[in-house]
Amino acid sequence: MPKTYIDDPGNCIADAGKDQNICNQTSTSIHAKVPNKSRKIGEWTQSKSQAELGVKIEDPKMPETMVFGLEPDQTYEFIWTLSNPLCRNQAFDEVKITNHSTPTEIAFAGENQISCGSNTVLLNADAPQSGQGLWSTNNQKIELEEAHLSNALVMGLSPGENTLYWSLSSTYCTSYSVDSVTIFYEPAPEKKSLNFTIAKDQSLPISLNEVQKASDMVLPHIEIKEPPAFGDLNSLGDDFIYEPIKEFVGFDQLTFQACSEKCPDLCAETEWVIQINDALDCFIPQVITPNGDGANDRLEIDCIHEFPNAELMIFNSMGEKIFQQKSYQNDWNGLYKGKELPTGTYLYILNLNNTTNDVIQGFFMIHRS
Fold first, then answer.
1. What is the DSSP letter of 10?
2. In the predicted model, is pLDDT for residue 302 greater than 90?
3. Handedness of CA 84, 86, 90, 95 (dihedral sign)
4. DSSP E strand stretches across 170-316
5. Side-chain-facing half-sphere of 242: CA atoms under 13 Å
6. From CA 10, how far away is CA 7, in angstroms rounded?
7. In 3-state terms, what secondary structure has residue 51?
8. What ranges do the domains of the chain cover?
């Protein structure tokens, strides 16, 4: 007995998808809805006049396809027609694509700003004449209060440059114009005190990078506010070197003042307290030249054999530990993870682990020709 197929009435209804509003695009996709297990055969068509304008349908037989050749400020119509042998009538549906032109208004995020001592700033963009604006940033630490306002409040700025973006959008054109503003934030500094220990008649290199880092400023201008009372502070290239009075034992102190180049009223003092110790006769070189010539290639401490449990730690100018060794063997040659460290000033801390727990710390330089 022959089979009779009764088609689902829903399969006799064409659905060309929802009308679209796009912004200044030359192409877009159209999506006809086709139920699963459907036996429909469909095709996209358009009017002859529309086709003569250069509009093309990529694959008319596919429910989802691309259309090309669109111009702004135009509305286009596409017809999805389906044929099903079990439907009494051919079904079709129409979808409209409205291509809006991009607004001509240009975003302005305001003038760049400098914030001295406060990480909260009021932004000052031009509010849009129509549509809406929105602030954004790539810095996850920054918080924006009411980001849709042109004069939004920004909080949590990071020291240095912070970039924020003001974008304009209309109903159908998202972020059609974007401008950026840079806010330079210099945090308020605090007075600090650093302590160092050297042996009698030993000099102490002072890295300018260390002075700048101690100030917690982004772009500080450094000057000597109070020179040492029991020694001399001399220039060593871009750095300094402290040399105590011969045979002097005790404490000496010098003070650096750091003032922000962008915020001249923001200044901070850093005290360098230096203990000159007579209890130890231990020479630590001020410079090593690890070039393989056999002279000064390693950081050799002449008293290290007297302190078998001595521990040496070395730090770079960023405060990162680059070397640590218990029972130091006078064998460090300026390498870190198998690579040569660059010319520069480094901090050492030598814990002698003796009965009096003496600690010697100071700076030395690596010089590479």
1. G
2. no
3. negative
4. 177-186, 192-199, 204-206, 220-226, 231-236, 239-244, 250-260, 267-277, 287-288, 311-315
5. 30
6. 8
7. helix
8. 9-100, 113-186, 192-277, 287-366
Q: What H or E segment, with its residue span, contains residue 208?
A: helix 208-215
32-41, 76-85, 95-104: the lowest-pLDDT one = 32-41
What pLDDT sits at residue 86?
Answer: 61
Closest CA to 275 of 358, 192, 344, 190: 358
CATH code, 192-277: 2.60.40.10
Cβ-contact 315, 321 below 8 angstroms: yes
CATH 2.60.40.10 fits 113-186, yes or no: yes
Q: Per mean pLDDT, which of 41-45, 55-59, 191-195, 225-229 is the most reliable?
A: 55-59
What predicted TM-score, i.e. pTM, was given to this entire model?
A: 0.65
| CATH architecture group of domain 287-366 | Sandwich (2.60)
CATH 3.40.640.10, applies to 9-100: no
* CA distance linking residue 244 with residue 13, whole number of Å: 97
What is d(CA 153, CA 249) in angstroms, rounded to the nearest whole number? 55
Report the chain's C-alpha Rg in angstroms. 37
Tens digit of each residue's pLDDT (9 = 90 or more) over 34-74: 765 555 578 999 999 999 999 999 999 999 999 999 999 99
Exposure string (b/e) for 311-343, b if CB count within 10 Å is 16 or more?
Answer: bbbbbbbeeeebbeeeebeeebebeeeeeebee
User: Identity (one letter) of the amino acid at 172?
Assistant: Y
Q: Which two tokens stand for residue 257?
A: 């003042």
Tokens encoding 174: 């998202």
Place of tokens 């220990």: 197
